[in-house]
Write a structure and sequence with these properties.
With about 160 residues, this protein is mainly α. It has one domain: Heme Oxygenase, Chain A, CATH 1.20.910.10. It contains nine helices and no strands.
Length: about 160
């Protein structure tokens, strides 16, 4: 019989596995975090990242639907509300999609441009592969991959 490990031990194990596989952030992420992207590169990055925000409901809903643990479903629901906008329920903040559109405007991308931008084929393919993974995986894997997809800090 397999040993069930404590959540803290699982987190340490996952961080170690990710660190072994990806010891450094992607080169674009390194440039972004160090402030070395040009304005044009930052705009390109923002437009391609936006594809995630306008499609986030596609995998968040699946993760919620698959989860048999009420406490985890509540956490997932809270995360979905945060993504879709707390303002739906009288909260302060709009959706992450709307916040991203505001960010894009701040770096010189017109609203229509970001809303109608078609991302690079690799960006579209990556999202489709992720949606398929979530659809076809065990509920725990679907939820765990969300932690990676949302860009959790390996050094946290």
């Amino acid at each position: 019989m397999s040993k069930v490990i404590a959540p803290e031990e699982l987190i340490v194990d996952l961080r170690h596995a990710l660190q072994q596989r990806h010891p450094r952030p992607h080169p674009i992420r390194q440039l972004l975090l160090s402030g070395r992207l040009t304005r044009e590169q930052l705009q390109w990055w923002a437009k391609n990242q936006f594809h995630e925000f306008r499609n986030i409901h596609r995998f968040f809903g699946i993760r919620y639907q698959k989860c048999p643990v009420p406490e985890l479903r509540r956490m997932l629901l809270e995360n979905m509300v945060e993504e879709e906008g707390e303002d739906l329920f009288g909260g302060k903040y709009p959706s992450h999609r709307d916040l991203w559109v505001q960010f894009a405007g701040g770096i010189g991308i017109e609203r229509d441009e970001i809303l109608n931008y078609e991302p690079l084929p690799g960006i579209r393919a990556a999202l489709e592969m992720y949606v398929s993974l979530v659809q076809q995986s065990h509920w725990a894997v679907a939820i765990g991959t969300g932690l990676v997809f949302e860009g959790g800090d390996l050094n946290a």
